[in-house]
Amino acid sequence: MEKEQRNNSPQEIFEALSKAKSPICCVSARPDYDGFCSALVMNEFMANEFGVDLRVVYYNSIADSFKLVIDKFTDLSQIEESVDVGSIDFSKYDLMLYTDTSDKGFIADPKIENFEIPKDLVSINIDHHAGQNDYFADYNYVEKASSTCVLLYDLFKKQGYEITPTMASLLVLGILDDSLIFQVEEVRTKDLTAVAELIDLIPARDLFDFVYELTYNQTKIEFLYSKLALKNAILDEENECVYSFITQKEMEEVGISLADKPSISPVELLRKVAVTDYAFLLKQSEDDPRAYSLSLRSHDPDFDVSVIAREFGGGGHKMAAGGMIYDVGSPQEAIGRVISKVNELNLR
Ligand SMILES: [Mn+2]
Predict the structure, then answer these.
(1) Ligand 1 geometric centre to CA of 261 (Å)
(2) Burial code of 31-63, b = ≥16 C-beta within 10 A, e = fewer?
């Protein structure tokens, strides 16, 4: 039988939290500020309000870029890194808390297929991925919003709980990062109000400090990828697109490899060009010089690039998708294949 998709009241959520004596939270496998910060906020909240220690674990190691920022105002080591979540003895716990996690198995990557929350464990699911989240827990609070941190802020406020300066810093980081600093379509008045009110709780900091931490942290690898992507970029006005390519030789020359994954794809630089419908970037494969990975971005919210990606054995979202192109003699040949496929598909 389909589970009823209904939210619990804030009161019910906090009542369930208050009863926990040994709670655990497995951070969402997607490594971002909203995931880490929402878990850390709940850790501080549980200690302050209920005097309970929330064990927070993450399946992987945490990238230094997060540590540099978060360690300035709280101790990121409250999250245990590289924990094999599949082998946790859940019988030691009485509550499983999920924040920012759309699927109950998404506590490792790839997700744990058919993960079942142990029967004796009360589960709580607080998340903003409405539409993807199927209300998998005993207690659910799922609402379409720009971030889980803004939902937590809302919950604390509704129930009149105190927000400490550390919690405020974490919530602001989560809200700003997940909303791309108020640039995603889910942004509403409450995001701006939350950040305005939270900043006032941290006397020594202003909004610029947070924006600085989130935007002035480009790694050397991201810089080198951007440099290569822009060097070969072409604005094709006739076909209303912008594209670029990166070869293995070029990567070797600057000292990077495909294993150095930038947290922001360099194709993001290309998608912003006006009067285009879409952008794409080709990267030559390491083991097959005749193969290229294809990253697609849409410039126009109504132009669906996932349709193009599917033609190249991939998929994705309407505005961001990807695939692979095989058996081409040059980047130019691969570019030609993409553009003629788009024209054939008649997506405009
Ligand atoms: Mn999120």
Answers:
(1) 20
(2) bbbbbbbbbbbbbbbbeeebebebbbbbbeebe
Distance 185 CA to ligand 1 centre (A): 14
Tell me how long the chain is.
Answer: 348
Query: pLDDT 10s per residue in the chain (348 long)?
Result: 456 789 999 999 999 999 999 999 999 998 899 999 999 999 999 999 999 999 999 999 998 888 989 999 899 999 999 999 989 999 999 999 999 999 999 999 889 998 999 989 999 999 999 988 999 999 999 999 999 999 999 999 999 999 999 999 999 999 999 998 998 888 999 999 999 999 999 999 999 999 999 988 888 999 999 999 999 999 999 999 999 999 999 999 999 988 887 878 899 999 999 999 999 999 999 999 999 999 999 999 899 999 999 999 998 888 889 999 999 999 999 999 999 999 999 998
Q: How far is the CA of 173 from the centre of ligand 1 (A)?
A: 11
Phi and psi torsions of 337, nearest 5°: -65, -40
Residue 164 Cα to ligand 1 midpoint, Å, equals 21
Rounded to the nearest angstrom, the distance between the alpha carbon of 343 and the centre of ligand 1 is 35
Going along the chain from its start, the domains and CATH numbers come out as: 10-215 (3.90.1640.10), 220-345 (3.10.310.30)
**Alpha-carbon gap, residue 20 to 30, rounded angstroms:** 26
Residue 257 alpha carbon to ligand 1 centre in Å:
29
Distance 36 CA to ligand 1 centre (A): 9
